[in-house]
Amino acid sequence: MSYIGHEEAWAEWRRALSGHRMHHGWILSGRRGVGKSAFALAAARELVAEPGVPQPSGEHPDVLYVTHPPKDDKEARKKADGKPYELARNIKIDQIRALQQRLNTRPSLGSRRAVIIDPADDMETPTANALLKSLEEPPVGTFFLLVAHRLSRLLPTIRSRCRVLRFPEVGPEDMDAVLAREAPQADAAMRAAAIAAAGGSPGVAIDFVELDLGTIHQLMQRILAEGDRDFALRGRLATAMGARPDRQRQQAAIELARAVVAEHMRHVSHAEIPALVEAHSELVRLAGEVPTYNFDPGLLVMEIGTLLSQFAASRASANG
Predict the structure, then answer these.
(1) pTM (two decimals)
(2) Is 296 a member of any domain?
């Protein structure tokens, strides 16, 4: 499957692949939901394939994929049984150490091995430092592809040892085509709302439809525009989120609030932009903390609503 906006990344990757010396570390940087993980898997298979060596169609022994493990032993048993399971908040240091043990052996089929860390920005500092040791002295024939939704969260020492492939946001017309294909249940109005909320990320737009975020989107827009002095809209926002929203829904709500704020910046005066920037910065902070901290969902929703309502209050005060 081809992804919109990947042409330049593929061109740069294949130029490097055909060169005399392939860089050992790559960061795939861009918004969540633009297809970086799919690119990493496809690029890794290109990297390890060699002429005359049959390549498996399924899982490849020389493509090592590290991502969030199950949350605990109970969730691990669910995974083993093929049932839905909850993920841990972070990639663990034990996973990196186990990976490094694998790297002491030779690749199985050819002379190259690819390691994908997805997402690399969900490693805490001790885990990132453990990975850094392998990036500093990579085994011969080993190449790293680090998927990063928030490049700034990676350690500077990791960024300095990698080349960065950037994945752009997708335009509205292409987004509409993706939604028509991947979410045919969405009507034109729902697709338009999803596109406005997604900030150029097809994955976020699809989540918008599948997670039924239309009501939440409307409430966020109202709070930002009107304020919420009596907390009524924030109460409705909490109800729309649900009593126990999972981490995916929490993350989607923050991304949606960020998109609402970003879109609003296009329609306000210059004097109002600093307050919006402050609200957006706080939402960025929350987005970075949700995968790590165990937030109370109700309090998280209220904090999102309060950040939006504070802008409306500051604007009303400024306008007298």
Answers:
(1) 0.80
(2) yes
